[in-house]
Amino acid sequence: MRLENKVAIITGAAQGIGKGTAKLFAREGAKVVIADIDAPRAEQTVREIQAEGGTAAFVHADVEQEEAIQAMVQFAVDRYGKLDILMNNAYWSKSGTVIELARADWDRSLNVMVRAIYLGCKYAIPRMIEAGGGSIINVASVHGLLAATRSAAYEAAKAAVINLSRQIAVDFGPHGIRCNAICPGWIITERGEEFLAQHPDAYERAVRCYPVRRGGRPIDIAYGALYLASDESTFVTGTALVIDGGLTCWLQDSLAQHLEQADRV
Ligand SMILES: NC(=O)c1ccc[n+]([C@@H]2O[C@H](COP(=O)([O-])OP(=O)(O)OC[C@H]3O[C@@H](n4cnc5c(N)ncnc54)[C@H](O)[C@@H]3O)[C@@H](O)[C@H]2O)c1
What we know:
single chain; alpha/beta; Rossmann fold; 7 strands; binds nicotinamide-adenine-dinucleotide
């Protein structure tokens, strides 16, 4: 029960990493608010948590809307009396170079992945301070550290998430607020399963770049988030925790050599 008596909001928790984390947080004793725009899946997440004996509630919150974020924070406080943990995790993005990407898609990507964090923190931090402190976890990506092809909005957003997390750590550390980012590598979610069903060879090809030779699962990120959410990490703030099976620790020329050899076999 590493999160006993804690109240957590997780955005984008209807599926994927958010759902996996919500289930783990609830198992560890947290009361969890599942904030999402996908009501059927979010309600399913709540039912699964309750079936395991956990406590959770769904709030419909479009993180592109400032009022919805404000209402989401208020919902958690009204329902469970306080707020200790905010995990900003919601995801929407379109790929493309800066030439290909429509401005509306750039704006939506940055709104969901960056502006939503600014607004979530703006409204959550005062409530956390009232509760005696809190932990904010912002889900960034290895794409915030390095650039892939044709991912202008995603790479820009995730790099911003990392430094915004440091900024919040610096500004609010004296008030008992910790703020950290997590940088996942490829995590196979429901979305990932759909992709793999259409591209059966993709998994084997991708994992050749991972020293651990497997893709990640939501639970791999959930365990990192649990540590950052819990009081075990009270000396940890402003960090970007890389959970990527070693993807970004491999020197590129050595990796290229390894892939060349593998292709020859
Ligand atoms: N899956 C990966 O391989 C991977 C790797 C690195 C980082 N990440 C990051 O992890 C986080 C979660 O990714 P995932 O793969 O689990 O995503 P996902 O697509 O499985 O789930 C995203 C969730 O966000 C919700 N959402 C979308 N727009 C929203 C909005 N406007 N308001 C509220 N909710 C909204 C969706 O309904 C969905 O439930 C994202 O920030 C993503 O960038 C994922």
